[in-house]
């Protein structure tokens, strides 16, 4: 048995006229994030964490923002592809830990829903997914409420001939 860890970081600017979707959960109808897809920074960070643990590059290589197919895309498709790659290489997801850095909105009312939704998407037990939120105490672009940052780490296990 061997273990490999991966990290993912994603930042998107706020855009008032879009819905805010994080971890596949619609947090609000307005005050969302700008981006080529649905701009779900949490799912993008988780995707990159899985790809990172696989040594398989980054989300932009698989889903370039210049490709019209991914315009407004549900970011679940990125997760699905990362999981497919992981299984193809004999990996199993042990756990994912996510931190969202933002001043707005307050995420504590949505944490449980995000956690459950992400776990279902990853097909792992809810206990293996953690969602945290913090601020930068008003420092920097996050403090000025210009955007949101999501950070994720994923641990993958490989056994037998894949270890
Ligand atoms: Mg992104």
The appropriate CATH architecture is 2-Layer Sandwich
Instruction: Look at the structure and give the CATH class.
Output: Alpha Beta
Overall average pLDDT: 96
Order of helices and strands: EEEEHHHEHEHE
- What is the count of structural domains? 1
Largest sheet, described in full? 5 strands, mixed
Instruction: Supply the CATH superfamily name.
Output: 2-C-methyl-D-erythritol 2,4-cyclodiphosphate synthase
Q: What portion of the residues fall into strands of 2 or more residues?
A: 25-35%
* Rg: 15 Å
Strands across the major sheet, in which order? 4-1-7-5-6
Detailed description of the structure:
The structure is a single chain. This protein has 163 residues and is of the alpha+beta class. It has a single domain, classed as 60s Ribosomal Protein L30, Chain: A. Helices cover 29% and strands 32% of the residues. The protein contains five helices and seven strands. The strands form two sheets. It has a five-stranded mixed beta sheet. The protein has a two-stranded antiparallel ribbon with strand order 2-3. Helix 4 links the parallel strand 5 and strand 6. Helix 1 packs parallel to helix 3. The longest helix has 14 residues. The protein is globular. The mean pLDDT is 96. Magnesium ion (MG) binds next to strand 1 and helix 1.
């Amino acid at each position: 048995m061997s273990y490999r860890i991966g990290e993912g970081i994603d930042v998107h600017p706020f855009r008032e006229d879009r819905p805010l979707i994080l971890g596949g959960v619609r947090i609000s109808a307005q005050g969302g994030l700008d981006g080529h897809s649905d701009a779900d920074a949490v799912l993008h960070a988780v995707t990159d964490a899985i790809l990172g643990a696989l040594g398989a590059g980054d989300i932009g290589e698989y889903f370039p923002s210049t490709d019209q197919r991914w315009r407004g895309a549900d970011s679940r498709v990125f997760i699905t592809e990362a999981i497919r790659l992981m299984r193809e290489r004999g990996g199993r997801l042990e756990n994912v830990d996510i931190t969202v850095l933002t001043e707005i909105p307050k995420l504590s009312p949505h944490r449980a829903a995000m956690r459950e939704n992400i776990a279902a998407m990853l097909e792992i037990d809810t206990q293996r997914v953690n969602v945290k939120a913090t601020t930068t105490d008003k420092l920097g672009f996050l403090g000025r409420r210009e955007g949101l940052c999501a950070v994720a780490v994923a641990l993958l296990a490989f056994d037998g001939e894949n270890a």
